[in-house]
Amino acid sequence: MKVQPLVIALGGMVAMAAAMGIGRFVYTPILPFMADSLALTKGQAGLIAASNYLGYFVGSLLGAAGFMGGNRRGWALGALAASALTTGAMALTVSIPGFLILRFIGGGASAFVMVFGSAIVFDRLASAGRPNLSHFHFAGVGIGIAVSALLVSGLAAGNIGWAGQWISSAIISLAALIAVAVMIPRGDDRIAPPVTTSDPGFDRRIIPLALSYGLFGFGYVITATFISVMVRQTPAIASVEPFVWLAVGLTGVPSVALWAWIGRRLGNPVSIALACLVEAAGVAATVLFSNAAAVLLGAALLGGTFMGITAVGMMTARELSRGDPRRTLAFLVATFGAGQMIGPVFAGYLAEITGDFAAPSLTASGALVVAAALALAVRRGD
User: Fold this and answer.
1) pTM of the predicted model as reported, rounded to 2 decimal places
2) Taking CA atoms, which of 3, 89, 132, 181 is between 20 and 30 Å from 206?
């Protein structure tokens, strides 16, 4: 069946919205309601978040591994189903181990959608001569975050608690699964074996890129996990809680196109460095100024950069790869995943000690500045 390239790109957008924007990140707006109802400590909240990032880390490495076989579309649709089911199942338990297991599986599922779904969309768009439409695909993350923000705030206004919020999120994700199955029909989506070369060598610029990517993972994830809790705990700005996560989502929609455009003109390492500095300012603003405008600006700067850095970083890794790019991408995913896992646990327990998220957020902002310097080191190695 012949499908227009735009429909394929929009199908990828829906997949990313469900698996990433909702499956991975709906925890952020739901967390304040869970914390209030279940008396979660900041440390426990950080552990639950880290479990999801651990699942994403493991799933990304498995997806990039050469031994994965079968059909990419089948893996992507199955992962979408797993993401939706584990999202809904969060409403069926109140135990920390249960939350940890479900978020781990959900994180792995979102990684499979990212790896296999993206591969399908990129290949089909390239075959149709429309690779420029890939920006629609990445925009799905921001759209999913915005949808989750509107959904949770709307349900909360109707006095529907955290369990109903998880179930409603799962229903939307299942609807998205059906849409993706229709918009991205069957094709030749067999997983190709890894390309082998006798001596592909190693580009040493990958090392500062990976270190930068890992610090970025640490730097963005603290605010991305706890911003709704931070706002709720500050009475002067608590009224903007429904809007901060929406700001992250809306500014995330055009972010990949923006930073990719900057990368084409100034070079990808410069694009990554500039985005890290902008994000560092946004992360710091959320704790340095106790007013609504500063927090909303910080949320907007976070949303307007984190997916852009993610995408441009992966593009740069592909450019630096010699031979099969899976090894390079797996290395990048490993450092990024380590940063993502450490961040929420570090922030949660430090916030318990200090009483707020100022110290962990400022540490994250500093890490982003160092990430910017390391990205520029990649450029100096040209």
Assistant:
1) 0.90
2) 132
